Amino acid sequence: MSTESASRRQEDREKARGRIIAAATALFFRHGIEKVTFGAIAKKARLSRPLVYFYFPDKRSLFVEACLRAGKSLGQRFVQAAASAQSGLDAVEAIGRAYVAFHEEEPELFFLLMANTATDRKLLDGDSPEACLAQQEFDVMGLVSAAVKRGIADGSIRPDVGDPLTVSLCLWGFTHGLAQLGATQRATIENLHGTPIGRFRDTGFATLRRSLQSGN
Amino acid sequence: MSTESASRRQEDREKARGRIIAAATALFFRHGIEKVTFGAIAKKARLSRPLVYFYFPDKRSLFVEACLRAGKSLGQRFVQAAASAQSGLDAVEAIGRAYVAFHEEEPELFFLLMANTATDRKLLDGDSPEACLAQQEFDVMGLVSAAVKRGIADGSIRPDVGDPLTVSLCLWGFTHGLAQLGATQRATIENLHGTPIGRFRDTGFATLRRSLQSGN
DNA sequence: CGAACCGCTGACACGGAGTCAACGGCCGAC
DNA sequence: GTCGGCCGTTGACTCCGTGTCAGCGGTTCG
To answer: What ranges do the domains of chain B cover?
Structure first.
């Protein structure tokens, strides 16, 4: 049947895409994005090099696709974290902690998102994968923003923090900076400054929590 | 005289190095670091390509050298900012504001330091330029740490923030994240989220200040 | 069984990275 | 004044990764 073979081909295609993305993700993490060649990706995915070009026209699109998968995983963690928290403030911190857990449990995916955030975002035209990525981040921000609103409503977060969405963006920036510094400058922080990375992170979270919580 | 001609040669060398770094800095900022070729740098600096290789064996060392110059400029701004503040807390905020001013007044240099912080720091062997860069960052952290200590001493910063050096590292991470997000995701933040970049930054600083200040 | 289709690949052109022998101008010596 | 040596400089080369395309072989449908 034509439909059956067609669907199986579709399936094989998806499987191949998955193999390529998995191979690229591992190599990006190990060697750094710009060092990885299409030849190496093809070899690890056990495909010929031109075939990789067939699925992904350039490294950027491959990277974006990998980021989308990573973002999906992170988004699920955020939803779970926010759902299991008692108060809005706890939800915000739980999301932050989920970010750190993501870093430790899926370092390869974390690395992708970290690199993506550090990349200049030009203009988002239409519904390209790039635009989907921005949309995905927007959705994630929505989760944080909802947690902040919830905190203001239940009294765990002081009402004068500012616009919840703007605060969420700031928290994203703060947590991102904390995570990126912890990831890229870990050697410097631990050796030169003598601060264990755990203490660094805990101090960071405590500082942020203090800036949000109501009362004194 | 041999000494005179030798010193003039030294001077010419330094001038050539400066020309190369200036050209590379401008191109890095305009096109992104990995897109810039040695040929383009040579052309802009009006030197032959092999000559650029003579001064800088690879792009990394050229980048590090440029970062060192940028770090020097930023360090001077920090010293001035801290000196002109009334209290320790004000000094901390002034340093943060100086970071933003640096971003706006010397975007090319800011871009370099941003890219550097996002880069994985492996191991620092001996007194290579890389190690100097780490040392320079360490010195800058010393300034922030001193400001925090000063704030605790004069009562403007709550004493229970934690170890001043660790707090400084966190503040570095926070500010870095805020700045990086503002720089790379400006289009997304302003268009998709509808938050002006100024409000984003002001909210960020207000949040950080609240987490440090003593009393209520 | 033949034709059309499609996934796949070997092989090519192109361009940037990095290297080196050789050239030319400057300086110090005789 | 001129000769030898030094050093900054460069044209030209190799190597390697990118991106492309014609063509091969297996599968499907008439």
So the answer is: 1-57, 59-212
Q: Which residues of A touch B175 (CB under 8 A)?
A: 177
For residue range B112-143, list pLDDT tens digits in order: 999 988 887 765 566 677 888 888 888 899 99
**Beta-bridge partner residues of A213:** A157
Fold observed for domain B1-57: Arc Repressor Mutant, subunit A (1.10.10)
What burial class does residue A112 get, using C-beta atoms within 10 Å of its C-beta: 0-12 exposed, 13-18 middle, 19+ buried?
Answer: buried
The protein footprint on chain D, as nucleotides within 7 A of a CB, is 7-12, 16-21, 27-29
pTM value surpassing 0.85: yes
Q: In this complex, do B203 and A170 lie within 8 Å of one another by their Cβ atoms?
A: yes
Which architecture characterizes domain A59-212 according to CATH? Orthogonal Bundle (1.10)
With contacts defined as CB-CB under 8 Å, which chain A residues touch B34?
34
State which residues between 6 and 35 of chain B bring their CB within 7 Å of strand D.
Answer: 9, 12-13, 16
The nucleotide whose C1' lies nearest the CA of A55 is C7
Give the separation between CA B186 and CA A170, rounded to whole angstroms: 13
Reading the block at residue B30, the tokens are 């305009």
pLDDT tens per residue, range B30-61? 999 989 999 999 999 999 999 999 999 899 99
Tell the residue number behind the tokens 């000494």, with chain if given. Answer: B3
